[in-house]
Amino acid sequence: MAAHNLGTELDLSWISKVQVNHPAVLRRAQQVQARRTVKKEWQAAWLLKAVTFIDLTTLSGDDTSSNVQRLCYKAKYPIREDLLKALNMHDKDITTAAVCVYPARVCDAVRALKAAGCNIPVASVATGFPAGQTHLKTRLEEIRLAVEDGASEIDVVINRSLVLTGQWEALYDEIRQFRKACGEAHLKTILATGELGSLTNVYKASMIAMMAGSDFIKTSTGKETVNATFPVAIVMLRAIRDFFWKTGNKIGFKPAGGIRSAKDALAWLSLIKEELGDEWLKPELFRIGASTLLSDIERQVLSLTFKIKALAIWYQMRAQFLARLAAVKQGRTAQAAQETKVCISRDTVETGQKGLTSVREAWENGKKHSGMLEGVIINSYESRQPTVCNTLCQNEKSVSQMASHCSCF
Amino acid sequence: MAAATRTAPRAREIFTTLEYGPAPESHACALAWLDTQDRHLGHYVNGKWLKPEHRNSVPCQDPITGENLASCLQAQAEDVAAAVEAARTALENWSTLPGARRAQHLTRLAKMIQKHQRLLWTLESLVTGRAVREVRDRDVPLAQQLLQYHAVQAHTQEEALAGWEPMGVIGLIVPPTFSFLEMMWRICPALAVGCTVVVLVPPASPAPLLLAQLAGELGSFPGILNVISGPTSLGPVLASQPGVQKVAFCGAVEEGRALRRTLAGQGLELSLALGAESLLLLTEAADVDSAVEGVVDATWSDRSQGGLRLLIQESVWDETMTRLQARMGRLRVGRGLDGAVDMGARGAAARDLAQRYVREAQSQGAQVFQAGDVPSDSPFYPPTLISDLPPASPCAQTEVPWPLVVASPFRTAKEALAVANGTPRGGSASVWSERLGQALELGYGLRMGIVWINAHGLRDPAVPTGGCKESGSSWHGGPDGLYEYLQPSGTPARQPSLSENLNYDTFGLAVPSTLPAGPETGPSPAPPYGLFVGGRFQAPGARSSRPIQDSHGNLHGYVAEGGAKDIRGAVEAAHQAAPGWVGQSPGARAALLGALAAALERRESALAARLERHGVELKVAKAEVELSVRRLRAWGARAQAQGHTLQVAELRGPVLRLREPLGVLAIVCPDEWPLLAFVSLLAPALAHGNTVVLVPSGTCPIPALEVCQDVATLLPAGLVNVVTGDRDHLTRCMALHQDVQALWYFGSVQGSQFVEWASAGNLKPVWVNRGLPRAWDQDAEGAGPELGLRAAQTKALWLPMGD
Q: DSSP of B339-375, one letter per residue?
């Protein structure tokens, strides 16, 4: 992991003139989601990358060592091995970036990960999570204990009342003390942006947290009513960029709470890419705090793998088929006619509807019966079923639809 | 499985680089549609495809690959005539329908677009090269909203727009680089109020043809929307077709000027929407990052057609430039039909224009910065930022083309206003400042049609969109868009053009010299002598006089003979008085108009006597004076309520529709009704905050001069200036004057033609009567809402809110 952020002296002039225009940021947030999209292999690769950014989290009152153990196993093996193989990514050692638990569960997590033989860091929330409304002394003690138990990343919550009353020096001092208490562990500061009142406050709090030495700034605890939203993220990312331009220090960013779908994850990745650039797209500088996101990503990768595979088969089939068709059309040479006949005779399917089933079978059986698909295509052409023929030959989308259908069984 | 193994390493590679991949949008349906036309597009007239024989055709190409998509027929005069004929036939039925029926039809068209939106957006993006995201997420929904909004307007037309009637057949000319949306903005209000439309689109633009087909396939009313494709040079042909009442042109400034000159005297209305440059004013109190996004919205997101002039306060210049350049690096340029690009390509013409401008700017000492992910082997042009352009260099004056941003610094808000208002363009601008007071000061101060505060490029059907100065004074959207296609009920139909051969060089150039013409029979005390300029009566520059005869042909007296120099003086005086008068509240203006009315009332018998000498019956003369008094009071009261707030969907915060004065308004009063017409024209002009230069009735200027005696004591100096003299000569001087913001002319046919021709200079809005008399004593014509509409200009001020 990267070196710590040592922080800087408190310089209130960095936040005093700040202006954040709320409606303009909202518009940008809308746009950034609509202007970028990734498809096919790109989407699969991006999703796998997103997995490596996840802080796999469980923060519930009913956490026990058994479910923490399960979580750690999932962190080590986030995506089914066969899928990774299909995408030729099985040797990339894809794990989540960290697991994130309550302080009392740190020991369990450390033990489980050790047993699994991996060095995924354990992150612990601390400082009176999620409200932060306890005495400073106990909050600092909490950090120290979590670090002693083996947590290498500490997610602290800030004292929102200091932001709302504008006590920026006090906020700076508190986070400094957190920093000191962390020792070698990384400090991730949760700003709880849903409770800061305005975007301008979000910017100011971000800047103070970075000046005080946070390695990451994090949107929310996941326990507020409003969690990680794009507008808030945009403001925080701009603060990170400003801090980088001023000091040369790259600070990490962690959205957390409410990120559940693979589509969301892709949008977050492209937001980071757009606002900060590629150099922030690594686990040292970007995390996604999530508990249920992983299963959706896995689902999506599954269906994408099928799609990509199906398309590949389809491309191959179509090329062969067209070549043969051309031969038949032009020369009707004895050999081509013979081959065609053979194909047709090999095909047992008669109607177009059944043809689709056989396409599915062709995938299932892979190379073995690949001739069958071809037979279906030629058969449907010969028997003047243009719809089926066209669907198979021209509409690449329908194939991917069929593929997604196939992936559901 | 060779292909499958080929893709896998790609996924591995992408996993490391996290690059964007192609995200192509299939354009199969656009091609399929072109196939239904056999890749051969004609015109869409009267609900049918029109593909006449023996016409030239131009290829319609994919701007990125250069692939030939279809060939498009070029219209000739006969095709234009056929289209206008269809529109004229359709008009009879369409204009007399109840508004509710028209509303129904427009709603059906909106539904039709909804059903075929995919075809529409892929076709538009394929042919224009614009980013499909912009067409799909913005243009197509907006097109539907436009239809729905105007359907509502059509529904309420009978009550809300009583006293107005549809103009008739509208000719619409749209520029080569345009979105089909530009057409929708204009046809929706026209169709809503009951006009029918012939659209002349540039060759190779199939999206409007598709729209016409969708409208035609609704079945009923096939001829209301006809689209023909052909060169802009067919514009005058379209205008000269009998039945065309109005031509709406949008395009380049010079083309608009030329069209204005060509169509002078042809007896039809011409509205111009010219140029596409926008302005962004970034103050030190701005959220700079958001303002940078505003710059992206304005030029680098395929949202607008033109470039941007960017004014940055000096204290945040460096910061802004750093952020802007960093942001530019992240822009992606590519094929329009890719779902993940910011900017597409717009064909060779747009690219050459940009290249030429950049080269010239460089030779004049400017810094050019280009960035972004741009394919190199291509017709693409990268996002470009130009700075350090010397203020006096030619490039600093000419219009900035797409996709260029020209940045220049300013020191204070006052200076920013001066710079921004110093350009001849008056289209749209945005102000970025978090200080409410400053933002409003700048927003109100900018002489622009639309001003956004802390946003750029927002649009809504309910908000009028238009411009002033050289951007042309036509409006679309909101109530103003409707009035563009309405005329007061009872307006006579267009007259065939009479005086085509007017010599513009000599019209009104020389003033016939006047000699002593015998003893004066004028009354005693003598009426005031001189030109009323700057609040007092002055001797004319030419130091000569012109005789005025009474109704019996006897010499009644002399008035001063004004000339070019006097007009200049009067305009200058009016400009000086303008800030003070604009600053007055409507209430204060009403009070002063009331005081003037009272003064007129006291002068009633004298004025009536003057009119009587001019051959008016005493009873009628008294009525005229009385009516004039009423008019003054009425306009004072009307000026109280002008602008209003609009509520816009998807925007928190209001949009203010302001009615602002035109500036210095020149008025040539008609010869008839020497007092009433004078007052009827003066009152609305003053009530709306204009300062005026008037030429009174030629045959009987004395009553107007008498009124000036009261004006001199009651109103601020320079507010009203009255210049007597040879009407043609004075008209010439005012029409050619670049600092007169608007001109109303009531006089001869030739004069009207000249005024229209000369207005092409600074593109001032003009109102001419084309030699037709006007019933000044009737309220509809003498004090109708038309005067109020013409006496002020609209500005839409967007005020998004939120914290």
A: TT-SB---HHHHHHHHHHHHHHHHHTT-EEEE-SB--
Do the domain assignments include residue A256? yes
How many folded domains does chain A comprise? 2
Helix (H) or strand (E) run with residue B713 in it: helix B702-714
Cβ of B165 under 8 Å from any chain A Cβ?
Answer: no
Helix locations, A248-369, DSSP H: 262-275, 293-330, 334-346, 352-365
For tokens 């990774």, the residue is A84
**How confident is the model at residue B641, as a pLDDT?**
66
Chain-centroid distance, C-alpha B41: 32
Say what angle helices B2-17 and A40-51 make with each other, to 10 degrees: 50
Distance CA B472, CA B468 (A): 5
DSSP class per residue in B468-503: EETT-S-EESHHHHHHTTEEETTPPPPPPP--TT--
Contact B340 A25 (CB under 8 A): no
For residues A68 and A86, membership in a common domain is answered with: yes
Task: Name the CA dihedral angle for B106, B107, B111, B114, rounded to a multiple of 10 degrees.
Answer: 70
Structure token digits, residue B150? 């105007």
pLDDT in tens, A253-263: 999 988 999 99
Query: pLDDT at position B123, please?
Result: 94
3-class secondary-structure state, position B147: helix
Whether B287 sits inside 8 A of A42 (CB atoms) is: no
pLDDT in tens, B264-321: 888 889 999 998 899 999 999 999 999 999 999 999 988 888 999 999 999 999 999 9
Token pair of A391 as six digits: 């669907």
| Residue B283 near chain A (CB below 8 Å) | no
From the list B9, B20, B288, which residue is nearest A42 (CB)?
Answer: B20
* A95 & A223 share domain: yes
Question: Is residue A209 domain-shared with residue A118, that is, in the same domain?
Answer: yes
* Nearest CB to B3; choose among A28, A44, A312: A312
The verdict on A284 and A314 lying in the same domain is no
Nearest to A274 among B12, B322, B330 (CB): B330
Query: Could you tell me which chain A residue has the CA closest to the CA of B452?
Result: A24
Helix, strand, or coil here: A379? helix
Residues of B in contact with A39 (CB under 8 A): 21-23
- Per-chain mean pLDDT for chain B: 90
CA B513, B515, B521: angle at the middle one, nearest 5?
130
Asked if residue A345 and residue A264 are part of one domain, the reply reads no
Tell me the mean pLDDT in the region A42-54: 93
In a domain, A34, yes or no: yes
The predicted model gives B782-793 an average pLDDT of: 91
Question: How high is the pLDDT of residue B524?
Answer: 60
Using the beta-carbon criterion (under 8 Å), do A87 and B8 form an inter-chain contact?
yes
Locate all alpha helices (DSSP H) within B643-691, ordered by sequence: 676-687
Asked whether residue A39 is domain-assigned, the answer is yes
| CA–CA distances in Å: residue B179 to residues B226, B230, B305, B524 | 17, 16, 8, 67
Res. B1: pLDDT tops 50: no
Asked whether the beta carbons of residue A313 and residue B19 sit closer than 8 angstroms, the reply is no
Among residues A279, A299, A319, the one where a domain terminates is: A299
Single pTM value for the model: 0.89
Q: Which of residues 336-365 of B touch A (CB under 8 A)?
A: 339-340, 342
Q: What is the pLDDT of residues A243-279, one digit of tens each?
A: 999 999 999 999 998 899 999 999 999 999 999 999 9
Strand partners, A359: none
Q: Please indicate, yes or no, whether residues A109 and A228 belong to a single structural domain of this protein.
A: yes
Tokens of B239: 């205008």
Task: Report the distance separating Cα B737 and Cα B714, nearest Å.
Answer: 28
- The boundaries of the domain holding residue A389 are 306-405
Report how far residue B426's alpha carbon sits from residue B472's, in angstroms, rounded to the nearest whole number: 8
DSSP state of B196: E
